[in-house]
Design brief:
Length: about 475
């Protein structure tokens, strides 16, 4: 069977017309660069699959110029829709009977081709023709994990305002430093603390306020508050703190974000415990709150233990019922009646030991709350010229004071009366202790304007109770 001629092949399938220079030299001779002009067929020219420009590309020598009539397009169409490819390369040998062109980048027998031109081939059917100006680079489908920026939730429930320490300690020669949580100083040294702010509040050991000690001074400057303590003693041991104030007119509140504090131990020879103004103190054990035996030391490294006077034994601070806090003393977390009695503390430091004052622990029978109050008159019917007394009694916690106020009939007329307040501790069995507070109002030379309601109000920190009784003119 005869193989169809090339003209027959071109009739069967339209192909691009390839115009080349003379055929390459046989193998073994030096290769001469070739120039090829690719002219698309009529169908390709009309369909617009290949587009280019001939304006800036000169035709190679030996290549006849193709007219618009020969190419099947008008002159303007031929210029716009023709593509000319020039490639200067050494022709690669083909195997006999192989019509497949060598494509640049395609591996042949495990090797990569140097360079080749693909001409006269239709685009694959599964590829869409590119439009003018369209990007010819195929984008890669690379999966990129999106980066989600971390956004801090300012409204989260666990967000709390940051606090900054505003306290500075003034050292010698005008040097400053932020004080540590605890400081140990020798008694007799002076201390100067400053807190930044135009309105500063201060807190320091109550001992300095009780006696209105002139050794301490507090001043407010334009940009900072200043606290100075001179001629310090072991009794000054305690916490010194400051805070900024937010004020609106005359009303101020504490700024929780601007605070500073330090606990200062003033060590004095022969004094392991912070001195007490008395030799005996009373500590009330309330069933609904903590109780503190204030055995505070002046030496940070001191070992402190708690002891019962009778029967004589050490009371262990087991961390469950009783714990030791160097800033407060021994803390009873859940007081009950078995804890009452007389106790004292023992401290050891530097080969020395010392015993504190004694503390009487009393269990409270009355729970926290407004005072339980009663009222009783010496007589509810009084004759003219007689004397009458009205007694108001209140029961409460041993360490909680009770204040009394009276309203009586002759008050508007400024009737002279006598009012006397007293209190004492009473034991109500099983070691329970209660505070008994009383107030007595006495009216002498009773008159008609004294007849009416006598109203008594007893008040403590938890609330108040009001009672009343009547006294008539007989």
């Amino acid at each position: 069977m005869q193989r169809p001629t090339r003209a027959t092949e071109e009739q069967q399938e339209p192909r691009a017309t390839v115009l080349t220079s003379p055929s390459p030299p046989p193998p073994g001779e030096s290769s001469i660069p070739s120039q090829r002009l690719v002219q698309p067929p009529l169908s390709t020219c009309r369909s617009g699959r290949w587009r280019g420009s001939l304006g800036s590309l000169p035709l190679p020598s030996g290549v006849a110029e193709t007219s618009a009539a020969e190419s099947g397009c008008h002159l303007s169409t031929a210029v716009a829709d023709s593509v000319v490819e020039f490639q200067v390369t050494s022709p690669s040998p083909r195997s006999p009977g192989s019509d497949k062109p060598h494509v640049h980048g395609e591996q042949n027998n495990g090797q990569t081709a140097d360079s080749a031109a693909v001409t006269g081939q239709h685009l694959p059917k599964n590829k869409r023709p590119k439009e003018p100006g369209e990007n010819r680079i195929k984008p890669t489908n690379k999966k990129v994990k999106p980066k989600i920026p971390k956004i801090k939730d300012r409204d989260s429930a666990d967000s709390t305002p940051k606090t900054q320490s505003i306290m500075m300690q003034v050292l010698d020669k005008g040097r400053f430093q932020k004080p540590a949580a605890t400081l140990s100083l020798l008694a007799g040294q002076s201390v100067e603390l400053r807190c930044k702010g135009s309105r500063i509040g201060w807190s320091y050991p109550a001992y300095l306020d009780t006696f209105k000690d002139s050794r301490i001074s507090v001043k407010q400057n334009e940009r900072y508050g200043q606290l100075t303590l001179v001629n310090s003693t072991s009794a000054d041991t305690g916490e010194f703190s400051c805070w900024g104030q937010l004020c609106s007119g005359y009303i101020c509140r504490k700024d929780e974000t601007k605070t500073g504090s330090t606990y200062i131990f003033f060590t004095e020879k022969g004094e392991l415990f912070v001195p007490s103004p008395s030799y005996f103190d009373v500590v009330y054990l309330n069933p609904d709150r903590q109780a503190v035996v204030p055995c505070r030391v002046t030496v940070l490294s001191a070992k402190v233990t708690l002891h019962r006077e009778f029967p004589a034994k050490e009371i262990p601070a087991n961390g469950t019922d009783i714990v030791y806090d160097m800033k407060r003393g021994f803390v009873y977390l859940q007081p009950h009646s078995e804890h009452q009695g007389v106790v004292y503390c023992r401290a050891e430091a530097g080969g020395r030991s010392q015993i504190s004052i004694k503390y009487q622990l009393l269990y409270v029978a009355v729970p926290s709350g407004p005072p339980s109050t009663t009222i009783l008159a010496s007589s509810n019917k009084v004759k003219s010229g007689d004397d009458v007394s009205v007694l108001c009694t209140a029961l409460g916690e041993p360490d909680v004071e009770v204040e009394f106020t009276w309203i009586f009939p002759g008050q508007k007329d400024e009737r002279p009366v006598t009012i006397q307040d007293t209190w004492r501790l009473i034991h109500r069995g099983l070691g329970h202790t209660t505070r008994l507070s009383q107030s007595v109002i006495t009216v002498e030379d009773f008159e008609t304007i004294d007849a009416g309601y006598y109203i008594c109000t007893a008040q403590n920190l938890q609330g108040q109770t009001t009672v009343a009784t009547t006294v008539e003119f007989s």
